[in-house]
Structures are given as structure tokens and as C-alpha cells.
Amino acid sequence: MSDAAHNSLVAHQFDDARQQQEAATVGMWTFLITEIMFFGGLILAYMIYRNQFAESFHAASRVLDVWVGCFNTCVLLVSSLTMALGVRAAQMGDRKKLVLFIIVTMIFGAAFLGVKAYEYSEKFEHHLVPGPTFHFHGVPGHEHAPNAEIFFSLYFAMTGVHALHMIVGLGLMTWLLRKSIKGAFNKDYYNPVEICGLYWHFVDIVWIFLYPLLYLIDRS
Amino acid sequence: MSDHSEHHIVPLKVYFLVFSALMILLFVTVGVAMVNLGPFNIYVAMSIAIIKAVLVVLYFMHVRYSTKLTMVVAAAGFLWLVFLLGITILDYTSRSWIPGSYQ
Amino acid sequence: MDTTSTVERVSATGIISDTIRTNFLNADYGIKSWLLTKDHKRIAILYLISITVFFMIGGAFAAMIRMELITPEADVFTSEAYNKVFTTHGIMMVFFFLIPSIPATLGNFLVPVMVGARDLAFPRINLLSWYIYVIGGLFTLTALVLGGVDTGWTFYTPYSSTYSNGYVMLTGIGIFITGFSSILTGLNFIVTVHKMRAPGLGWFRLPLFVWANYAASLIMVLGTPVVAIGIVMIALERGLGLGIFDPRLGGDPVLFQHIFWFYSHPAVYIMILPGMGVVSEIMACFSRRHIFGYKFIAFSSLGIAIIGFLVWGHHMFVSGQSSYAGIVFSLFTFIVAVPSAIKVFNWTATMHKGRIVYSTPMMYALGFIGLFLVGGLTGLFCASLGVDIHIHDTYFIVAHFHYVMVGGSVMAYLGGIHFWWPKMTGRMYPEGWGRFSALLVFVGFNLTFFPQFIAGYLGMPRRYHVYPPEFQIYNVLSSGGALVLGIGFTIPLIYLFWSLKYGEKAGPNPWRAAGLEWETTSPPPTFNFDYQPVVDHEPYNYSEIDARSSATVSTHSVQEEQHV
Fold first, then answer.
1. Which of residues 55-74 of B touch C (CB under 8 A)?
2. Does residue C497 contact residue C428 with C-beta atoms inside 8 Å?
3. Which helix (H) or strand (E) holds C420?
4. Nearest to B61 by CA among A188, A123, A201
5. Chain B contact probe: residue of C263, C265, C312, C324 with most B CBs at under 10 A
6. The complex's ipTM?
7. Which residue of B has its CA nearest to A41?
8. Which of A115, C48, C49, C550 places its Cα 20 to 30 Å from the Cα of C425?
9. pLDDT range class, residue A143, cuts 50, 70, 90
10. Model pTM score
11. Nearby residues of C501 by Cβ (< 8 Å), 6 or more positions away
12. Are B78 and A36 inside 8 Å of each other by CB?
């Protein structure tokens, strides 16, 4: 046990590696619950307005492409899988696999953002960005949508804040990749991999809710 | 000498099973949205999303294999979200119970 | 660090020698050693300096308010300027002084020592939290210098999101950034208290100060993000035109109020809980008694933190919220008063048959109990739906919250600073001046705020600088009181600073207090203890401490070799 004090991988305030690892996990989860509450405010706004302006939200939602959103959801789910596999590789001390899985995760993350950028550019083209240029004619069968602009404000706010979190996630992955390549992690020390993984999965979970909320109001 | 009890390695099979479940549930969600269930669409969609989230939390995020403290922290976050959403929605839904109130 | 020889040396003599030795203050010199420190004690001092600056700014704006209100006419400020003055006072005091005050200074300094750890769980995140605090503060001060904000510290929409011409975004960004400082501090405390307690230190042996900061940390972590997203939504609306609260698009101003108060009500418990923790420590020490009802106080702290999240709508009784929701919020507000009352009863019972010492910290603590009582009871008036219709947005509310925030939190903060001053600096402050200032603060405070209850009850609205002449007498009394209060706050600033060089040197335990922090040197070494503390007794063991001879400096037997 006293070896840990001289183990350079255990920071001075901790007694041993296990305490450090548990502290890191609890610490990251505590941060993630702040994120739950952060997105929670947006979800609250969305739920209240969706209830109040049901018809407008219904119409506005139909503008979003279900299959593009579905593709993006798949992309994120795969990236979560590869991230989990990456953590597993770190647990087993397999540096090559860890690096590989981080890279794949990043590729999928970037793909998600690319698709999102495409969707945003489409909205710009069709005058669906709230502000002076906003103009929504409705969709066939759902022409009456006086409050559609609020839907789109929330759409951009929610997916925008989510995308920002994805970008931060990619930043974390870049840092993690560098350290993994340098061999900083082994089967006894991989806390950063684990906690970056937790963050990544969380951002995925947010999208798991965002997709049905925004894209799947009623497509019958 | 390191302690391996926190280093529970999840079998590959579990990861792939969970992933498959997530993908299946995704397509179920899309499918259900194409059916008109009236006011129930949102409840079904959210229920499926919650199941997917729980799967990710328990298996991908290892909460199933973590300390009780980690589980309590995770649960607290979701509980607090329920407080925020639930009580505020209570305000909005109960406004119509009073004639002539601001809505 | 070679601990073996040190342990043997201490075991043999049982006395911790505190002649010239390295402590956290002299361990390293130079500005870099402070600005890049990982030592929680140094970070606490950095916070202490910064929040004092913000307190002075907030205080200056309070002085401006009181100056204007001496006469019923607008003779000092225009309406727009006055709006900016009270907004700035509120923002500075709430976000940049009260919320961080005890947790970031006393909490940062003491929590690791009290749990017997070498530092907090995440020292670098602790330092980061200070930088974030400063950067957020700079953003807000920049907005202030550029012209300020006139929305009130509550920045209600649609005024803040659509119509205000002030620097709402810049101020909002500043507050948003500083919110992260709060979150990171809370996160650090939660993990530290769960994971880093010394051997033998079970939850029910922790000092109540730790329980209090733990409970406040739960609030910091769960509440702050909600006001953060509220600010983001306003920023998106003002900056990118994403109208979420815009009434022209159907936006709902009450929705913003829900989001805002979901945090801002629990925030007041962030402000008071650590203060209550300080009071528990002081009451026990200066009554020379074990705290009465330890578990009740500990659970009450948690109870206040949790129930405090269910009452936010009591700020919105007259805003258009449903009356049914109002009833629920009113009920929970009455319920949340119960744990606070339990604490007041327990502190009082602690004094019973005690040997009271009227030191400066004790005077602040006693003042706290009296003033918090008034503030808390008037809170119940506000919580009553029918009464609130009359007193909402009047000076009654202003008086109520100043009684709890200033009469409560600030008094507790000052009491704590005095109580732990010898521990933090190794110097005693001049006790005579200390007691005099405490008295001045108490008198000045009551003179400032009691007349406001009356003015508010009689109908004077808040945030107005022009008022009917029949209210002038109360305003004049109040402004006079504010002058006394200001002097009362200034004197400690001077003598505390003075004491750093000229104050009497303090030993490890000048108050003969219980607690791990008093078993190490004053000031403590960088890693807090020269040995691994092991706790083998209950907290607040004052009868034991007083039974031992006062010649012995060490107050608890150290059993390093025996692992629990």
C-alpha cells in the first residue's frame, strides 16, 4: 500500500490508485449531472412550448429529415460502442487497439458534426433560421404554423449546444489520442480514458433524447 | 500491487448485445412515430429513449459495475431533472383549472 | 516525503512543536508560487482577496442606493442610472460575494484539513475554479465600466432578452463563467468528503462545518447549470436572434422565471448553509459544550438542500403562475423552514449550561442567531400566499432577504474569518476592536434594515428611487444605519490586515477548540499534517478538552501506528 505514495501515477493527495480512480469516476459523474440539469433547462422550454404550440411544432418538425437524423443517431451509437471498446482495450493494456478505437470514435464524431453542418446549411437556404430572414410556409397538410419560429429557435439552441459539446468531446479525444500514442496508459492506470468515455457517452445520451423530441413529433 | 475489483472488464458479447438493442430500439422509435397514436406518441417515444439511455448508462458507462456512490450520483441527476420538469409542468397544466387565468 | 521519523518524534513527545518551521505561507515565495499553486489553502487566500474586492464594489453601490433614498425625489440618479445601480449591487453581492464567500474561502481552506486529507480531491481543478471566478468577474466588471445593466439582478425577460439597452450579454457571460467556478468547487467538495476522509472519520464524526459545505455543494452542482442555460438562452436571443422568450413569437416570460428561480432559490441556501456550519463550530467552542443534536443538525442541512429545490415558485406567486402550483410551493416553503428552526433550537440548547465566552466570533454567531431568526420568520410571512400579494416587490421583501443574507450569511462569514484567522495566518487579531466592530455591525445592520420592514409593509415598492414623502423617515433611518454598518465592515478590514504583521502570534489552538484543524500548526504545513491523522473520538469533545490541563497544547491522542 505504501508503494502507492511513491508511484508517480498516484497524485499526492490520494492514498492509492484505487482511491484516485474512484474519485475520478465520481468526479466525472458529478460533472455529468450538472450537464443533465444544463440540457434540462432547454428540454423544459421545449416541452412547455411544444404543449402550448402543438400544431406549429408538429408542422415545423416535419421540415427536419427523419432519415438524416436517424443516420446521425446511428453514427453516435456506433461511436459510443467504439468508445466503450476503447476503454476495454485500455483495461486490457492493449495500446494499439485503444488508439484505433479512439480514432474511429473521432471519425464518427466528426461525421455527426458534418451531417449537422449540412442540415444547418439547408435551414439557412430555406429561410428557417429565426430572425429577420425567417419565413415558414408550413408543409403540405400542415400549413398553419404561426409559432414555428420558436420551434426553430429551440431546434438551433438544443442541437447547437449539443454540437458544442460534441466539439469539446472531439477536443478531449484529441488529447486522449496523443497521450495514448505516447503510451501514458496501461492496465493499472487508464482513468482519463474512462472519464473521457463517460463524457462521450453522455453526449450520446443527450442526442438519444433530442432526436425523437425534435424529429419524431408525429410522422403519420 | 493493484486492486482489480474496480477494473471489471465487460465481455465483448455484452457490448454488442447492448449495441444491437440500441439500434433496434432506434428503428422502433422511428417506426412508432409513423403511426398516429395521438397524445401517446410522446410517451412511447420518451419511454424508448429512457430505455436506451439506461442501457448506455448501465453498460457503456459501467454504472452496473461501479460503486453504489456512482449509481446514487447518476440517479440523483435524473431525479433532479424530474423535479425541474415535473413541478414546472404542474404549473402549466394546472393553469387551465382556474377560469380566466393567464395561459 | 519521509514520514517515519516525524511520526516517531511526535509520538514520543505528544506535542507538536511549532517554532520556526515550514508552513504553507512560507513554503515558497514569489507571485508564481501563488498563481500556480495547487495548495487549497493558498487558493482559499486568493479567493479571500478577490471576494473582498467584489464585496467592496457591491458595498459601494449599496452606499449609492442609500444616498439616493435619503430624499423622496430623484436627486442623485436618473431612473435608468438608478436601475443600473441596484442591479450592479445585486449582481456583485449575490454572484461574486455571497455564493463563493464561505465555501471558496473558509471551505477551501478547512474542508481538507477537517477531513484529515492532504488536499482536496482535485487541486488543479480548484485552482482553475479561482481563475474562472476571476475571469467571470472581469467580464462583468467590463460590462459595468462600459455602462452597466439595468434589468435587476434577476434579469427577467422579455426586458433582458429583447428590450434592454444595457450590456446584458456581457454581464450574462460573466455570470455564466463564474457559475462554473461554483460548480467546480462543489464537485471538489463532494468527492473529497466522500472519498478522502481520514481513518476513523465516519460521517457522524465530521464537523458540522463539513456537513454544511457538503450540502451547499449538492446545491451548487444541481442548481447552477439551470441558471446557466437560462443565461445562454438570453444570450442566444440577444446575440443570434433565436427568440425563445420573445413575446412577439409567443415566448413566455414566466418560463424564464421558472428556469431562473429553480437555481436562484436554492442559491440562497448555498449562501446560508455554510454560514450555519460556521455557527455550529463557533457555538460549540464558545459554549464549551458538545453541539446539541448533532445528527439533527447534519440531517437538517441535507433536508434544507433537498427541500430547498422544491420551493422556487414562491418568488412567482403574483407572476401569473397557477394558484395550485402556488399552494404547493407555499406548503414546501413552510416545510423548509422546519430544519432551519431545528438548528436554531439546537444552537440555543448548546448554550444551555455552557460556559459562554463572548469572543468576537461568538458575538457574530449570537448576532447570526437573532438576525437569522427575524429573517427566517419574516420569510414565512412572505411564503403565505395572501400576505405575499401585498408585500411582494416591496421593501418588506428587501428587508427579509437582507436579514438572512447580511444578518445571517455575512455575520457568519465574519465570525468564521475571525475564528479561523489565527489558524490561517498564525496571528491573532485585536480582540477589543473585533468585539467593537461586531457590535457596530449588529447595531448598524438593524438600523439599516428594520425600518425597511415597516416601509415595505406600509407599501413602499422596491427598486424605486422616487417615493411618497411619508416613507422618508424610514429611509433616513435606513441610510443612517447603512453608514454605521459600513464603518462596522471597514474596521475589520483594517485590523485584520494590520494583524498580518503586528498581530500576536498564535499557537496551534488558541481557542482550545475541537477539530482536526486545531491539531496542526498555525498556519498549517503545505500538506496539512506531518502525520496521518486517525480519528478515534466523537467531535466537539469539549468536556474532555477542558478536563485536560490547559498547559498541554495537543488536544487529542495521536495513534498513528494503529490503523482502524
1. 69
2. no
3. helix C411-425
4. A201
5. C324
6. 0.93
7. B84
8. C550
9. confident
10. 0.93
11. none
12. yes
